[in-house]
Amino acid sequence: MTEITSSQKQAELLKDQGNLYFKKNRLGAAIEAYTEAITLRPDVPIYWTNRALCHRKRNDWERVEADCWKALELDKKSVKAHYMLGLALLQSERYEEAVKQLEKALELGRGGKPTNYMVEEIWQEVAKARYSEWEQVSGPWLQRLKELRKFCEKALQESYENTAGKVKESKGFLNVGNLDDILTATGKVDTSMQADEAKDKRNELNLELSALRNSYQDQLQTLSKVFEKVSQQDIPGEIPEYLCCKITMDIFRDPVITPSGVTYERAVLLEHLNKVGRFDPLTRAPLQPDQLVANLAVKEAVQVYLSEHGWAYKSN
Questions:
Q1: Exposed end of the chain (fewer CB within 10 Å): N or C?
Q2: Which region among 60-69, 97-106, 177-186 has the lowest average model confidence (pLDDT)?
């Protein structure tokens, strides 16, 4: 029992020493101190996350990942371990895994202190990861759509031109020019009766060509609408107001509703209550922190919107 207590004390001293080295940016010495603490007490997760933080400062992401996985084996609720693991996974562009870890860190962080600076930092990394994940998929997808649209437009144009040419040919001439051109092409230049026949022929041809041209234009418009509809979710636009905080105008992350029926971002509203006064910012009605209720309906709506419009993560 005395030996265990002694190792605990020695490990804590080494951790404190490592913390001091870290503050002075002596990362090599800090890593050595944390490593010695881990050797004495490998079952303490904070020693692993502290060493991971040193590796992070050195951009040694493989070691960050290894230490964070070990910390999470010991403590599945370690916010720092989930967070730094997410960052490490981001570096290797494993976006889906990174987002999973970062969102877990965000969930655990909000459960503690929702106004904590680390919650904001984690959210920014979640947004970055989600945006990168969207960009990785949407970029090539939009390019393929663009190429396909050009191909379809060209195919419609060729079809229109070929059909128009066949119609002209079936009428006995390929040039729908002025009347003299048509009369010359048909060899009818003698009498006014022949001229009338040529006019009728020209009018008939013009009607058919006009109908073809209108059909072609309609097809182009329909094609444009189809491609706009398909690509709509991947083209940045305005986020609906009901999904944004009334104070920051940013999309909600952790929305809460007041007794007055107004929804705000939790951290922003708590800061208002603590620094400005205990009242609703819009209605001015008296308001206490314990009166805030999570707006789960809006939160779900935001999650659905972001899952369909990954570009919206960049707006924050």
A1: N
A2: 177-186
* C-alpha pair distances (Å), 247 with each of 141, 272, 281: 35, 10, 8
Q: Measure the CA angle with vertex 283, ends 280 and 289; round to 5°.
A: 15
- Cα→Cα distances 97→89, 107, 136, Å: 7, 16, 14
Which pair of structure tokens corresponds to residue 247?
């104070």
| Enclosing H/E stretch for 132 | helix 117-170
Distance of alpha carbon 49 from alpha carbon 288, whole angstroms: 36
- pLDDT band at 122, cuts 50/70/90? confident
Catalogue the long-range contacts made by 209-213 (C-beta closer than 8 Å, 24 or more residues apart): 209/164, 209/167, 209/168, 209/176, 212/160, 212/163, 212/164, 212/167, 213/160, 213/164
CA distances from 61 to 26, 190, 288 (A): 18, 91, 43
Report d(CA 219, CA 211) in Å as an integer.
Answer: 12
**Inter-residue contact 114 to 267 (CB < 8 Å):** yes
CA end-to-end distance (rounded Å), the chain:
53
Distance from C-alpha of 288 to C-alpha of 203, rounded to nearest angstrom? 80
Looking only at the bridges linking them, the beta strands covering 293-294 and 255-257 are: antiparallel
> What is the rounded CA–CA span in Å between residue 58 and residue 52?
10
pTM confidence score: 0.57
Q: What are phi and psi of 76, to 5 degrees?
A: -70, -10
E strand intervals along 128-282: 255-257, 263-265
Token digits for 123?
A: 């959210």
CA distances from 109 to 4, 89, 118, 201 (A): 32, 19, 8, 80
Residue 142 is given by DSSP the state H
